Amino acid sequence: MAESVHIHNLEKRFASPDAPGQEVHAVRNANLEVTPGELVTLLGPSGCGKTTLLRMIAGFEEPTSGDILFGERRMNDVAPNRRDAAMVFQSYAIFPHLSVYENVVFGLRLQKLSDAELKARADKVLAVSGLTSMANRSPNQLSGGQQQRVALARAIVMEPKVLLFDEPLSNLDAKLRDQMRVEIRDLQQRLGITSLYVTHDQIEAMSISDRIVVMNSGNIEQIGTPREVYARPASRFVAEFIGKANFPEAIVADAQTVDLRGVKLPVPTSGNVGDKVTLVLRPEAIALSATEGDFAATVRRAMFLGNVAEYLIEIEGLGEWLVDVPNPGEKGLLDPGQQIFASPSHSSLHALRG
Ligand code: ATP
């Protein structure tokens, strides 16, 4: 049965290893509700506190204050091995001297199951993990991706209520990472296990999550679906961490409209008329035309990136914008120095709060 996970006002302060008497505030007042069967990623740059938050949920780190609940049960004082949670690590932590099968059943052996039960549970998990034909191999006869599958199989064979992933794909090459991401998401959804997944890779977070928790310097900056955090970032930090963005400054014209250097754009804001607001303008949400558009611009740089052409354009009074144009192969590239027109797509504009 999947379980909900509630984090309530969770804090973690470490004694600073560098400055005696000082503290590192690794996690600040974190609040989060993960619903049963949901996959939530903790995303942020190195040092933002995501691993510390995950380790507190696992029970490897004691919170300074606040509560962790699985379902209705407070977990703060429950030992890690009694939390019904299993963790999948970056280093696979599989035993090199044991076969794939013995690695998978390792934790189950401590549960005093009959041999038949043990085998039935292991066979089922080996099958869903695509490892049946490799059960008797030793780990050094497996690829990195297969080893990570063993680590995952070893976690899910315990039938945990909560599955915790600590950057599980960091050691794999880019192609394998893409493939394993799909496998992990597929398996997690089929089994319906509530999961928390730590990563610093925004593409990984976007591709596997029901919701993303974006963290910065110990704070949760935003919690939302991949679509929400991309289209409606709560802060400049979130907008820049999840993709690329331009941040032109506009003036509030009325509750539904802003004025961007004389061009009225439909952007709802809560500010007063005349207030300055920062817009988030994604590079792919700007159309370029040789003949007409909202802003006259000059191409400063043109780069062919295969699926898109990435331009840096300059607009008088508004500075430089990044613009992505899809399928550049069909159209050919614009030349630096060329005069063009740029128009933001109205539907994808968003204003940052205050
Ligand atoms: P990374 O992606 O690099 O693993 P992270 O976002 O997971 O980073 P944490 O490992 O949670 O970050 O660390 C958060 C902060 O807490 C950092 O400033 C780190 O140096 C500090 N920290 C973590 N563990 C300890 C510890 N045992 N003692 C002191 N400070 C710690």
TrEMBL record:
Where does it sit, as one GO cellular component term?
ATP-binding cassette (ABC) transporter complex, substrate-binding subunit-containing
Cited InterPro entries = AAA+_ATPase, ABC_transporter-like_ATP-bd, ABC_transporter-like_CS, ABC_transpr_MalK/UgpC-like, Mo/tungstate-bd_C_term_dom, P-loop_NTPase, Transp-assoc_OB_typ2
SUPFAM superfamilies tied to this protein = MOP-like, P-loop containing nucleoside triphosphate hydrolases
Q: Single GO molecular-function term?
A: ATP binding
For the keyword Nucleotide-binding, the answer is: yes
Q: Which domain of life is it from?
A: Bacteria
Report the Pfam families cross-referenced here: ABC_tran (PF00005), TOBE_2 (PF08402)
Asked if the record carries the keyword Methyltransferase, the reply is no
- Identify its membrane topology class: Peripheral membrane protein
Keyword annotations of the record: ATP-binding, Nucleotide-binding, Transport
Location(s), subcellular: Cell inner membrane
* UniProt domain ABC transporter: residue ranges: 5-242
**Which family, according to UniProt?**
Belongs to the ABC transporter superfamily.
Name used for this protein in its record: Iron(III) transport system ATP-binding protein
- Which species is listed as the source? Aquamicrobium aerolatum DSM 21857
